[in-house]
Amino acid sequence: MPTPTRIESIEIVHPNAAGLDIGAREIYACVPPDRDGETIKVFGTFTPDLEQLADWLLAHQVDTVAMESTGVYWIPVFELLEARGLKLSLVNGRHVKHVPGRKSDVQDCQWLQKLHALGLLTGSFRPDGEMCALRAYLRHRADLVQHRAAHIQHMQQALQQMNLRLPQVVADITGETGMAIIRAIIAGERDSVKLAQFRNVRCKSSEETIAKALTGTWKEEHLFALTQAVALYDFYTAQVDACDAQIERQYAVMKPRWEPTASEAPNPPPVQRRKKRKHEPAFDVRASMIRLTGVDVAAVDGLGPNLAQRMLSEIGTDMSTWATEKQFTAWLGLAPRNDISGGTVLRSRTLPSRNRAGQAFRQAATAVARSSSAFGA
Q1: What are the tens digits of pLDDT across the range 129-173?
Q2: How far is C-alpha 277 from the geometric centre of its chain's CA atoms?
Q3: Distance CA 376, CA 374 (A)
Q4: DSSP states of 266-288
Q5: What is the distance between the alpha carbons of residues 185 and 181, in angstroms, rounded to a whole number?
Q6: What is the pTM of this model?
Q7: CB 18 within 8 A of CB 65
Q8: pLDDT in tens, 113-122
Q9: What is the sign of the dihedral through the CA atoms of 350, 355, 360 and 363?
Q10: Cα(260)–Cα(169) distance, integer angstroms
């Protein structure tokens, strides 16, 4: 007879665990069933309601909470409960599979509490408070740049409808030559020869070619659309500049993540006399990151200051969160998923992921692949 297999029971890992199912208007909370009084309670989402939720959890001796939410409804709850000393775990809704017949908000919070008590849930990664603030600024800046790009397309559309072929004779209509010509058009200039005289000496197209491209129809409705598109472009440019100033202030107040010594002090980056790249912040991002981390991350081939600070804000500086490089790569969404059955790999593919750090790594890989560095080879 085969030796009977010993089956170990699942032990309670977090005896004081609670579960929260967070919605736009209500929060369903569940504490361990061995507590006195009500073990499931519904709270509102206003700040006084969140204070009552924190008091209720602490009164039931809860020390760790697993929460599930859609959108950004979890952020105020997370920050308030974290400030009250509770350990928070934001879990992915796809990881919390419901058995048939258990789908309701009340049972959701119970299911979260039970799984968290058994130690079966893994919380989503969230950097520390200072990094979260930097991350929020950089994400907001990326949104501003994206909104500004839409109005560049509106400018191109207005020019095209008037048969002004400016995008065909300049590399970028938001460059020095392009914007000088567009602003002159808005100011009332219609002479293509005079408009071509705004050409920068570095522009590859000649004045004759530009003058020929700027012979159009000058429709009033399209000129109006062009004027508004330029105004919106200027507005978003001003907002990006203001955001850059706020990011620089955030870097200034952040404490260095390393203990500098005389022998380990990093050398300041060499002053690079180069033209400012498109979408590049106005301040010295590279020097700010060196002061913060103690290493020149932007010097890695394929990164540069912009990608380096995106990665820094999304990942932070404490890599101990991931036990191995494989776990880190999987979290980034860069590791392929292998579907195995009977020891045979049925399919191997990288799943779609919206991880911003993973997107930055992909962008860096694309850039370095075209370089003459060792990585490119």
Answers
A1: 889 999 999 999 999 999 999 999 999 999 999 999 999 998 889
A2: 21
A3: 5
A4: PPPPPPP--PPPTT--SS-HHHH
A5: 6
A6: 0.84
A7: yes
A8: 988 998 888 8
A9: positive
A10: 52
